[in-house]
Each structure stands twice: as structure tokens, then as C-alpha cells.
Amino acid sequence: MNQNTPQRRRERIDRGIKVRCQGIYSLMSWREMTYITAPRAALIAGLLALPLVMPGMYWQRVISIVCIYALLAVGFDFLAHFVGLVSLGGAFFVGVGGYLAAILNTAWALPPIATIPAATVIGATLCTLLLLPCLPLRGVYFAIVTLMYPLFLARVIEALDILGGTDGIMGIDGFGGRWTEQYAVIGMLLIVLFAVRRLVNTDIGLVLRGVKDNDQAIRASGMNVTRYKALAVFITAAMGCMSGAFLVHIYMWSGISQFALDFSILPIAATVIGGGGTLAGPVIGCLILVPVSELLRDFGTLRIVFYALILVAFIVFRSEGIMVYAQRKYHQFERWTQV
Amino acid sequence: MDILVYGTINSVSLALYALGFALVYGTSRLPNFAHGALFVLAGFITWFFLNSLGLPYPVAIVLAMLVTAVIGALIYQFILVRVRGMEISEIIASYALGLAILEGLRWGGFKGMSYTLPVFIEGSFAVAGISVDYQRLLVVLIGAAVVGMLWLFTHFTRIGLALRGMAQDERAAMMLGIDSDRMAVVAMGFGSGLAALAAVLLLPLGNIVVESGYNILILAIAVCIVGGLGSWMGAVLAAFLIGFAQILTVVYLGSHYQMVVALLAIILTLILKPSGLFGRQKELEERV
């Protein structure tokens, strides 16, 4: 390398306000409190305002679907980036939760307010029990086995012709009105999002991250790795089953298509685009991807090509995602320095 | 008796589906989830050469195999090499590519039942009272020949030995001057070529439909996992295991359960013995 040409590199430095906000002293001034709360408040206010600004019934329905996918995506992100289990089977949770809600609603005529929590808890227990034998697996093996579970259940339902077979279960109650429907989903999404953010910073979250980074160390500390993995899978499954239950009540129909690959792939794409490991990133990813795929609905299957290519482009060229990028810009500034 | 005959045919088809996948995973540790898409793509390329360009059938077949191999190699060279080693990114990226190819074909109008390839030789003959057409006989013969050739190729040629060296110990192979990225491109090319070979052999038995891409991917994964990811002989044996299991379920339970068998095989193998029946590699690493 030529010694005479000045070498420059870009360095990133934390903004002063970010450093000042790290301790209890952030409560000293309004400016710093605003700095901390503004992004969170913007997300909450934005989500709550979305149904109001949507032009019609159709787009309001799209918002509900966005939130359902976002629930799944937050679950995927939690399991993949905080526990180290990559589950390609989001559809499995959706299907189990959806069918449970449908059965509870049609067989015992329970209202949605009862079926959704019931389907969440029962479904999550069921999913955890079914996935329990695969928990010792890691990496690509866990990914493949979870990819196979929803396909397997769909084929079994098809082959045995149970639970309505290929027609599905019809005649399920909807929500009372479209406002109840939307604010129920949005509210649940916000509660789940902030609960999971809090969870990963508690002691259990620390152990879960340990499971991801070095499970032998967790084992050596006398903790049961499988138990913690089961706990994490239960949490993710609960989120997935809840979104499935919401979906069934929104569409008033439950069928094999709830095991379709859409529910496994789109949350993953959203996580990749939004930024893995940030939890809010997947929500933003869903807010972008789902409306885009709705806009492209006229092009038929071309929209799947389109979002598959976006996914490839992001994962290959910009694997950090939007949220990580935005966080960097928010907290740090960059400048060129002489080397 | 017909279980034996059809079981053998089914098993060889499964082995043909899986060999390309096994070759790529075995050498470069890349789970090529675009395998099914390449299979279908090869079928349509052959159809295009045959019907739109009017090439003779053998030329069309050879060209289609070459084109598919080049496409596979290009996909690796320009896209997948960047996520090399990050397993989950590899799976997602290759799966998304496969999805893009399949859905792109569907959007391009390649759907429905109108796309078929002619069989190589018309007619059929009888084995112990069961009529078998010549195409199926050819599938079995060529399938056996491919497995044999692959064995010879990986044991006695320089490229084959380099591929095996990479599968066993990548660092040592690199110290011996084997360029692992270039070898992975070669492996991906060969794997895609094998997918194309399977396509031209097996597609004349039915229609070329986009949906079969997903099923073929699942079958290939099932065979490779049961046999042990990375073990080629294991894959062949697993193909016979699953092939006969499928034919038995069709005979005794009904054809709905055919796919259930493959999925059940994957799940059970992964739970009980994740390295597969014959996989010796990394048995300790994949479990806690």
C-alpha cells in the first residue's frame, strides 16, 4: 500500500445523549427522557393509530393480518436469537392454535374471549409436548424437523379426513365488530412485544441466552438445558397459537391452509428484513412485507417470487436488517478519521 | 411380487431424487433447499428445447442437464457463497431461491397438465406376470449406473477425491491446495446436473407440474436424513427403505399415506438418531 496517500476510515461514536441516558440520571431532564421514550412511544402510537388512518374495511383487515404475522415473527425472533433454536415451523403453531380455537368454538360454543386464551394455553402445551423429543437437536436438524411438523399434521388431517378434512371447519364466530377485532389484535401484539423485551432482560432471559451461546456452560452450572428450551418453546408456541386463534376468528374458518408454508416463511422474511434480535424489528418487517404482498396480489404468484427475492437480497447483502441500522443511526454518529 | 417390482422402481426414483442433494450437502455442507426447484426447472428446460426449439430428444436432454448444472453453479457462485457457513441463512436463502424459481415458472404460465416429455422407448414387457414399461426399466438401470459411476467418480478421479476430502476435513483439504469455494461450485454444479438427470428420467412417467418441486424436496430430504446427511451409500440404502415402506403403505393403507411415511421417517430419524442410520459425521456435535 502506498504510504503517501492518506488512509481514512469511518469511526462510530456513541452520541453523548445516549451515554447520559444509560443510568438513573436520564430522569434528570425532559430531553433525555424524550430521547429514551420517543421510539417506543412512536411505535405504540403508530400501531394504535393505524386502523384509524386506513382507507377502508379491506385495508383494516390487512392491518389485523399484519399483527398476526407480527406475533409469529416476534416469536421466531425470540426463539432464534435469544435461545438459538431456529424454528421453520411457525405454521405448526398457527395450525394447532387455530384448530383448537375452532373446535372449542363450534363444539362448546365458547365465545372468542374464552377460546383465544384457552387455545393459547392448551395449544402451547400441546406443541411443547410434541416438540419435546426434538429439543436436544440443534441447528439445521431442529430447523428441518420443525419444517416437517406442519406438513406432517396437514397430511395426517387430509389422509384421515378428520377435523373437516380438506374442507376445514366452518361456521366459527367472528369478533363483535371490526374495531374490537383490530384493537384486540393490536393490543395483544403490543403487550406481547413489551413482555418479551422485558423477559429477555430478566434472569431467565440471561439463562436462555446462555443456552444459545454455550449450552455446555449452562449444563455445568447445574441447570437443565432441555427444561429451559422447553420453556422458551412454550412461550413461542403460545404466541403462535394465539395468532392462529385470532386468525380463525377473523376469517371465521379453519382449514389445512393454516399449516401452509406462508406462516412459516413470511415471519422469517420479516425478521430478516426488520433485523434479527431486536424484537421490534420483526414487527416493522411485517408492517412492510404484508401490505406489499397485498398490493402485489393482482400479479398472482409473482408476489411470492418478489418477496423471495427480497429475502435473498437482504440475507445475502444486508443481513443486519432495518431495525439494527436505524438503532445505529439513532444512537451513534459517524465521522471520517485519519489513520 | 408386484410389491417387489414397484418397490424397487420407487426406491430407485427416490435415490435419484436424493443423490444431487446428498452430493451437495456431503461436500460443501450446504443444505440445498432449491433442489426440488432445479428438478422442475430442468424438466421445463428440456420441454422448451424439445418443443420450442425443435431439437432432437437426446440433444435436448444433454443440453438441459448442462444448462441446469450451470444455473446451479451460478446460484452458488454469486449468491450462496456469501452466506457460506451460516447454516440458517443458507437454508433460508436457498429455500427462497427455490421458491422464486418455482413460483416464477408458475407465473410464466407453466402450469396445468399440458407439459409432458415423451418416454425414451415405447412399450412394455412383463416381469413375473407384472407389466413394466421400458421407461421404468431404464430408470432402474440408469439409476444403478449413476450410483456406480458416482462411486467410481468419488474414489478414483482427482475432482471426486477432492470433493470427498472437503467433506471429511475442510481445513486439511485446504492445506493440500484444494480450493474449497471452487470445489463447492463444482459440487453444486454436479448436484444440479444430477437433479436434471433425475428430471429427464422420471418426468416422462407423468406430467411436469410445479407443485412436484416441493414434494421432491421433501422426499430428497427424507432420504438424506434417514441415510445420514452426507453419507451417499446411506442415502441409497435409505431410498430403498423409504421406497418399500411407501409401496407397502400404498398397498395396505391407501395412497394418501405415501407422503406421511416420508415425513414420519424424517421426524422419527431426527428424534431417535439425528445423524441418520449410516451417518458417522459429527454425531456428538448435533446433540447437547
Q: What would your notes on this structure say?
A:
The complex is a heterodimer of chains A (339) and B (288). By secondary structure, chain A is mainly alpha-helical. Chain A has 2 domains: 13-53, no CATH class; 56-261, no CATH class. Chain A is built from 14 helices and 4 strands. Chain A has helices spanning 16-20, 30-53, 57-82, 90-108, 112-131, 139-160, 178-199, 203-213, 215-220, 225-251, 262-274, 280-295, 302-317, 322-331; strands spanning 8-14, 169-170, 253-254, 332-338. Chain A starts with 7 loop residues before the first strand and ends with a strand. Chain B has one domain. Helix content of chain B is 70%, strand content 3%. Chain B contains 11 helices and 2 strands; from the N terminus they run H-H-H-H-E-E-H-H-H-H-H-H-H. Chain B has helices at 2-28, 35-52, 57-78, 87-107, 134-156, 158-168, 170-175, 180-202, 212-227, 232-252, 258-272; strands at residues 124-127, 130-133. In chain B, a hairpin with a 2-residue loop joins strand 1 (124-127) and strand 2. Chain B is globular and about 55 Å long. The chains are: A mainly alpha (339), B mainly alpha (288). Chains A and B meet through helix 6, helix 9, helix 11 and helix 13 of A and helix 4, helix 9 and helix 11 of B.
Strand order of the main beta sheet of chain B, please?
1-2
- The quaternary state of the protein chains shown equals heterodimer
Count up the domains of chain B. Answer: 1
Q: Pick out the low-confidence regions of chain A.
A: none
Q: How confident is the prediction overall: mean pLDDT of chain B?
A: 79
Q: Give the overall shape of chain B, derived from the CA principal axes.
A: globular
Structural class of chain A: mainly alpha
Helix content of chain B: over 70%
Question: Rg of chain B to the nearest angstrom?
Answer: 19 Å
